[in-house]
Design goal:
299 residues, alpha/beta, 2 domains, seven-stranded mixed sheet, 11 helices, 16% strand, globular, disordered N terminus
Length: 299
């Protein structure tokens, strides 16, 4: 491990380490949900007061959504921190073995998923860091769909395997993609075989991104979904899962339709990526206080 990596890991929040994550899962399992969420929200409020420099990153991320309104962005960012604390408890309870069944869905939107899968060309579910996105895998499992999540390795040693094992227990697979070209080839093979995969698109990639417009501002976007569509001909389905008092509201966007032959052109892949992100903008605006962006996302 080099000096830069050591410095980066030293800056990680305490809960984002393998040992603390296990402790969180245990507490979520043994304590009443209301109690542990109350404690988590209290700690999030203290974090907001004591770590203003880090919290300001979220404010800056939210400003374009509010057309530069500083007060509105700060209010939403504060709420996002307390909501994230509750979201973390929800996730730990799932990883401890709790089964979620309080879904708010519509038959018409679920049919979008079923119709795409019937074509047998693979389905790429596109989501955001919005709400309880990990819960989507459990929902698909209950619908009889085995999902594979495409993700980067976690920044702490051991946490990657911990999260991977937890997902497997409730029927969701994990494929670490990173910078491994062979992993990308494996993704294409799985899609061509009719598999169901999921990817998130609302954070700039480390490299290889393209400039698009997002909330009226320049944004460096990942071409991953468009590249996979070009290579495999898979269906592209946008999905969000946000927390409501009564359960988890599932939104399935209309399928993103594309001409595979045109995607050989990089500009066409950029335009498809632009179309996808633009379609998600209303969902983010509606639930901005559950949009968890804790690292800078704008150029």
């Amino acid at each position: 491990m080099d000096a830069n990596e050591k410095t980066a890991r030293a800056k990680l929040p305490a809960f984002y380490r393998g040992g603390m994550w296990r402790c969180g899962v245990w507490l979520a399992r043994v304590l009443p949900s209301g109690l542990v969420k109350g404690i988590a929200r209290l700690l999030a409020s203290l974090y907001w007061r004591l770590q203003r420099q880090r919290c300001e990153v979220v404010v800056q991320n939210f400003l374009p959504v509010f057309c530069g309104n500083q007060s509105a962005a700060e209010k939403a960012a504060h709420a996002a921190h307390t909501n994230f604390a509750a979201k973390l408890i929800d996730l730990w309870r799932v990883e401890s073995g709790e089964v979620t069944r309080s879904w708010q869905t519509t038959d018409g939107e679920l049919e979008i998923i079923h119709a795409a899968r019937r074509r047998g060309r693979g389905t790429l579910f596109i989501t955001l860091h919005l709400g309880n996105w990990e819960h989507g895998g459990m929902l698909l499992t209950q619908l009889g769909i085995r999902l594979t999540i495409l993700t980067q390795a976690e920044p702490d040693d051991g946490l990657t395997d911990l999260r991977k094992a937890a997902r497997a227990r409730y029927g969701v697979d994990t494929l670490i993609i990173g910078d491994d070209g062979f992993a990308f080839v494996e993704v294409i093979k799985q899609l061509q075989a009719g598999a169901d995969l999921a990817i998130s698109l609302d954070r700039p990639p480390d490299r290889g991104g393209v400039p698009v417009e997002f909330f009226g501002h320049n944004f460096e976007a990942s071409l991953a979904a468009a590249e996979l569509a070009r290579a495999s001909g898979c269906a592209l389905i946008g999905v969000t899962v946000v927390r409501r008092p009564e359960g988890y509201a599932v939104k399935v966007l209309p399928e993103f339709i594309y001409d595979r032959k045109n995607l050989g052109n990089r500009d066409a892949r950029r335009e498809l990526t632009q179309q996808i992100l633009r379609a998600f903008e209303p969902e983010i605006r509606k639930d901005i206080e559950q949009w968890y962006q804790f690292t800078p996302i704008w150029p």
